[in-house]
Structures are given as C-alpha cells and as structure tokens.
Amino acid sequence: MKGSNCHDTREAWLRAGTNELRGYFKSWEYELPEHIRFAIGFPSTGRKGKRVGECWHSSASDDAAYEIFIRADLCEPEKVLAVLIKQLVHTLLPPDAGHGQLFKTAATRIGLEGPMREAQPGPLLKGKLQEVAEKLGPLPHAHLDIERQAMTTRGSVAIGVPKKQGIRYRKAECVQKDCGFTVRVTASHVRDIGPPHCPRHGAMTVDMPSDSSETEAEAA
Fold it and tell me: How many whole angstroms separate alpha carbon 194 and alpha carbon 41?
C-alpha cells in the first residue's frame, strides 16, 4: 500500500491516530502519555480468545512504555480506532484499575457507552472517530482470516522451530513365551536402571532401538 497512504506501517497509522486524539482527550482534561507503542497482532489471549484489544501498563515495561495491541482480524479504520481509544483510556489509569469505576468514569466521559468490557463509541464519539479516520487515510492493514488459517494449517506455522517429539515407549516381554506378561518402558530407563521384571520369571526382554537417535526424543 506504499504510495497510496501517508502512513507506511500499521504502527505509524495508530501512532498518528493517537496524536489526533490527544486534543480530544485534553478537552476532557485527560493527558495521554507520550511513550506508547502500538501493534496489530494478537493479544495475550491468542487467536482463540475474544479480546480485541489490550493495553499493557508502563509498569510492566523495562523502558516505561505503554504497549497497545489490536487484534489482527480487525481492519476497518473506524472499528480499529474504537478499540484504540478504549485502550488509550487504560493508559490514564493505575495498572490495577481494570474496567472498574475509574475506567467507567473516564470512558463514559469521553463518549464510550455500554458494558465497560465491551464499551463502544456513542454517537458523538463515533462522529469524532469518523473525522480522525478520514484524516488518517487508509489503514495499511488487511483483514487476517484467522478461521481459514486454522482450517488449512491447524494453527499458525512457526519457521525454524523443531517439532517436539513425544516419549517413545518400548515393549518389554517376559522371557517365557507362554507367560504373556508385557509392559511398556522407555529405552532410557532400561539403559539407566535395567529391564523390568516379570513377577514370575524375572528380567524381561526389551525391544530396544538400534541407535541413539531415540534418546533425544525421549528427553524432549
């Protein structure tokens, strides 16, 4: 989208949107912090969670920055701004404020309404966000089809991360063929401790791997 938009990145667009909203917050006697980072991705609840936005307090950051995350399957500018402004309210409050009375007071004052966990812009605030969206221009982000990704790849694909292997159990049999007593045991236990014993006939035979390749898999 470079060339069709004065903002080359999603983060730049969100930062510009926040700067546009600073005056609006100030008109309600609220001062937004300067040190805020932005990202469109997944909140800490992941793609299966219902959370559409998240604000991490500056007390959690090594350089005292607020971190705002907006879910990646949102792409309409006004809806993204609606999530952004709610997260900006959190930057005004103590880290343990949650969606309690302090949040409700600030949120309703700037024009959010409804249940606070799902607060949405009221008519006046919605008009303000429309103005901001028009001034910012297109958001350099497209809808991410999370459900399609889940169906085609069974989740996200990590590059360069080895697949974790499960523990392989080896079959141990009684030395007496007509006994029929069998158990399962890891090769590492047999190497370190010895083979298991049949209650009647003693040490059992174990189907051990032919090389050491399985040792690492058992430890994974």
Answer: 51
How far is 65 from 70, CA to CA, in rounded Å? 16
Q: What are phi and psi of 121, to 5 degrees?
A: -65, 135
- Check residue 116 and report its DSSP letter: G
**pLDDT value of residue 158:** 46
Kindly report whether the global pTM for this prediction surpasses the value 0.90: no
175 with 104, same domain: the answer is no
Query: Judging by DSSP bridges, how do beta strands 112-113 and 197-198 pair with one another?
Result: unpaired
Q: Do 196 and 137 have their domain in common?
A: no
Smallest CA-to-CA distance from 141 within 13, 3, 6, 53 is with 13
Q: Which run of H or E residues covers position 121? A: strand 120-121
Q: Tell me the per-residue pLDDT of 146-156, one tens digit each, with 9 for 90 and over.
A: 776 555 545 45
**Residue 168: CB atoms within 10 Å:** 14
